[in-house]
Structure formats: structure tokens, C-alpha cells
Amino acid sequence: MGFVCDNVLNYEVVLASGEIVQANAATNRDLWIALRGGSNNFGIVTKFDFPTFSQGQMWGGAIFYSPDAVPAIFKDFVDFAGDPAPDKKAHLIAGISFSAMQTVGVTNIYHTTNIEKPPSLAPFTDIQPQLSNTLRSDSLLGFANEQSNFTTDGARQWFFTTSIGLNLELMNDIQRLFSQALDPIKDIPGLMLYLIFQPLTEAFLQKSSEMGGNSLGLSPTDGPVVIVLLNSVHVNPADDDTVRNTVLDLIDSIDKLSASRGLDPRYRFTNYGYKTQKILQGYGPESLAHLRATAFKYDPNGFFQEVVSTGFKISHAH
Amino acid sequence: MLDCIEDIIQIVTMIFVVHRLNLLPLLALCFVIHQAQKTTTVDCTNLVKSFNDRILLPGSPQYVASDGSYFAAFENKLSPSCIFQPQSVHDLSEFVRAIQDPAITDKPQVALRGGGHTAWAGSANIENGITIDLSNLDAIAISHDQKIASIGGGARWATVYATLETQNLAVAGGRVSKVGVGGLTTGGLCLDEYESVQC
Fold first, then answer.
1. N or C: which end of chain B has fewer CB within 10 A?
2. Are the Cβ atoms of B169 and A155 closer than 8 angstroms?
3. With DSSP H G I counted as helix, E B as strand and the rest as coil, what are the percentages for chain A, rounded to 5?
4. Residue A102: phi, psi to the nearest 5?
5. Which of B38, B71, B76, B190 should be substituted to probe chain A, the one whose Cβ sees the most A Cβ atoms within 10 Å?
6. Contact B199 A112 (CB under 8 A)
7. Do B72 and A154 touch (CB under 8 A)?
8. What is the mean pLDDT of chain A?
């Protein structure tokens, strides 16, 4: 089904003028496309229409491994994400979780049909040494609630992001960079740092391209793209600068390394972006031009740039 | 401004007693510092007249609940002059017009908040401006033929999935239940796609 935004049939939007409009394929189509990735630069969306589908129980959960398992996890991740004929009902996120108590490898796997240990995901259930897992049948809500419980609201936590091409050697090198970055800060009170990889396969991008269009500037030939999430948690305000700067430096070094190997896609996932990161630029100049033109058309006075100044603003995306 | 003057007076009193300094340059410094600070506290009293209990003022339990309900400490820390919680899209439309009234000389800065899950300070909250909190726009309606779900911009995926589950239905949405629909969807990316790859 492509990206979530690809699925939106209609948006109800309050414009800067106060006017309430609908944006869909037939009406205000440019606004409809812009809102697919364009964030809060055009209006306030008060309603989203999505198509529904039948969904019963799913199978999957989280698996935690010894850090020694990480090379195997990465290898199977690359195989999964690079599969030319993927199991479209299988879902995977993989990475490393650091805390003072322990470092673990982690995968989150899901299958939308209620099959226990489907072949596409079996490699991940088989990797050893494994510490524990939450694999089970559950509803979509049950799995989504489990995800919510991995974090605590109100903590000093940040998300940061970058993207890489799909490549095992690069992922292994990123693990080394991650360990090196952690070394000087590992005694910071309450520090947790997650390095998470999420694949956008060619099949996924192909599907996305068939759904009317969006503003993300991605095409199937860009695939596979791997979204990298760095999620930090710490306790003391005095450590804010150190944690933030360490992670931003780590991302810099990841970007330099991936660029040197031609494995640096321009796309960035908006919702994992930190405020100083160039997120909207990742959509590419063509999409940005369209976003600017659309913003000017629906918000000629720049209300959503100057007054509603929060979030990622296209007026700052140079 | 007053805090600054009070602090300066305390320090200066100590110094004056010892050195008999002239106060004027220090007061001038206070004035300059105050002018240089960009925070503009918004006077929300006129908005209260028009929007009643949809304007939450600092100190009220509703304000405290809203302002303290973000994912990250960095957002919880910010305190808007007031919070606007529309009950309907028409409220919001009226509000957008009201804050652009030419009669208002100090135009407020506005933050827009759905689920409040973006972590960095200033992504969906603001110091001294006005935060629009969309949480009450969270209704979910399923079409008669069950083919379309209309989801309010302030809803979270938890409510979406819970509501649709009663009909054995789902939509393609976020993989974390406490995340809001608005930011995730307008930010583009999926986090849990059925019939396709999770990202």
C-alpha cells in the first residue's frame, strides 16, 4: 500500500484564510499531493480519509539477541530487503540497542497473516544467541501498543535520521562508528542509544509510485533505501549538548562514509528528523519547487511560514 | 523585565553599599536586554472572550495536562501564553481568522500540535506563543459501506486501530499506537504497511 500518505483519499484542510477545503485527486489536487509529505506548510489538516481493509490477527513481535548476533542480523536484513520477490506481508526493523546495562541486537518482525514463523521471517527467529522474544499472535493494536511501551513519555529523548543504500559492509561499518561514538559518552547517566534500520524496498517504492504521487521525491529506481534512526535517551539536562552533538557527529560520519561509497540517497524521513537536519531538502529540488508553489498558492501571505513557525518549514529548506 | 530589575537591584544594593555605584547604566542594561529577547507573551484575554473554554490558560488543570503531555521533555518544558483546543473544524477556522485580525498589533507565533510525538523543542509547542492542540479533533467515522475511515487530524493511531478493530478492519498507519495521525501522515512515511514493507 505504499507510504501511509499514499493512502490518503481526501484531506479536510483549514487554510490560512480560515477557509475549509477538501483536497483529493479531483479537487485541489496540487494540495493533495503537497500534503503527502509536505508536513504543516499548507494548512491544518482536520480530517484524513483512508481506505479500510480487513485485518485479523497478525503474527510477530520483538526479538532480542546477544550483540554477537548483530552481523548475522545485518546479513539477513540485507537479504530480506534486497529480495527481488519479497514476501509483501512480511515486515522488518532491525538494529542495536545500547544502555549501560547491556547492548543487544534487536529485530521487530511482523506478518500480516497469522502464520507462525513464515519462511520470509524465519531467518530472524533462528539467529542465535537470542536472549528473549515477544513473538505471538496479536492484533494490530496489540503490536502497536507494544511499540508504544518501548518508550516512556516525558523523557529527554530525541530522534535523528539519515538514509543509506542497502549494503552489508556499510551496515557493519556503521556499527563500528556507533560503538566508537558511544565510547566517550557511555557513562552518561541513563544513556540509551538505539541504531535502527528500516528498509524501503524496490517493491515498496514501486507500489508507492502507483498510488497517485507524493512529494517525497522517491522513485522505484532509488530503491532499496534504508532509513536509519538514531534514538537517544538521557536523564540530565547538563548532558543535553554532549548527547545531541555526539549523535549529530555520528550521523555526519555515517553520511561521509556512505557518500564515499555512492550509497547516500538524498531522501530523509521527516518524522525522524532532528530540527537542525536538512529534511525537506531530501525530497529533491523538483518536489521542493512544487511544494513552494503550492504553499504560495494556498498561503500567499506565508501564515504557515511566519506565524505557524513550528515544524520543518519549506521557507527554510534551501 | 521585572525579574531582571529585581535581580539587578539585589546585586547593585550590595555593590552600592561597597562602592557607591551609579544605578542608571545597569537599569539601561535591563531595558536593552528585555528588548533584545524575542519572546512575545501573547495577551489571550480577547481570545477567551471569543473562544471560552477552548482557550486554556497557564495554571489551569487542562493547560497543565495538555502542556505536559508531549513525548519528549524538551517539548513539555515550553510554556505557551495559552493553548487553543478547537472542538470542531469551524472553531479552528474562526481562530485562524481571529489571530490575523489587523487590529492585533503583536501578532502571535503559533505552534501546531497533534500527537506531540516529535521530540525536538519547538516542533509542536512554543514558548510564549499560542499552541493549537488538535486532540479534540479525534473523531473516527466509518462509511456506510465500511470502505472508508474518516479520521480526525488530532487522533492517535491507538484510537484508530481500536475503533476499526471492532469491525475487523484496519487502515495503513503508524506502528506506534501513541503517535498521532496528523504528523505521521503529513510527514509522508509509513510505519507499518500491510501488503507492503514496514518502515
1. N
2. no
3. 40, 25, 35
4. -165, 155
5. B190
6. no
7. yes
8. 93
Would you give the distance in Å from CA B15 to the centre of its chain?
A: 42
Checking B53-56 for CB contacts under 8 A at 24+ apart, the result is B54/B84, B54/B85, B54/B86, B54/B87, B54/B91, B55/B82, B55/B83, B55/B84, B55/B85, B56/B82, B56/B83, B56/B84, B56/B85, B56/B133
Q: Which amino acid, one-letter code, is at A184?
A: P
- pTM score of the predicted model: 0.88
Contact B185 A18 (CB under 8 A): no
Contact B181 A151 (CB under 8 A): no
Packed helices A168-182 and A240-260: angle between N→C axes, nearest 10 degrees: 150
Report the residue from B100, B121, B188 with minimal CB separation from A36. Answer: B188
Task: Supply angle C-alpha A165, A170, A176, rounded to 5.
Answer: 140
Question: Is residue B89 within a helix (H) or strand (E), and if so which, with residue range?
Answer: helix B89-98
**Cross-chain residue pair B165–A140, CB shorter than 8 Å:** yes
Q: How far apart are CA A49 and CA B142, in angstroms?
A: 9
How is residue A158 written as a grid cell? 530525541
The pLDDT value recorded for residue A6 is: 73
A53/B contact by beta carbon, under 8 A: yes
Picking from A45, A210, A305 by the largest number of B CB atoms within 10 A of its own CB, the best residue to mutate is A45
State ipTM: 0.90
User: What cell numbers appear for B117 in the block?
Assistant: 510525538
CB atoms within 10 A of CB A209: 16
| Separation between Cα atoms, residue A137 and residue A140, nearest integer Å | 10
A24, β-bridge pairs = A10
The sign of the torsion formed by the CA atoms of A55, A59, A63, A69 equals: negative
Per-residue confidence band for B197, with pLDDT thresholds at 50, 70 and 90: very low
SS (H, E, C) A170-199: HHHHHHHHHHHHHHHHCCCCCCEEEEEEEE
Q: Which tens digits make up the pLDDT trace of A132-152? A: 999 999 999 999 999 889 889
Q: Are A196 and A178 in contact (CB under 8 A)?
A: no
Beta bridge partners of A198: A227
Query: What are the cell numbers at B47?
Result: 481570545
Question: Smallest Cα–Cα separation from A155: which of B76, B48, B94?
Answer: B76
Q: Which residues have CB under 8 Å from B92's CB, separation 6+?
A: A14, A44, A46, B86, B132, B134, B137
Cβ within 8 Å of residue A58, ≥6 positions away: A110, A111, A112, A113, A114, A137, A138, A139, A140, A143
Q: Which residue of A has its CA nearest to B193?
A: A1
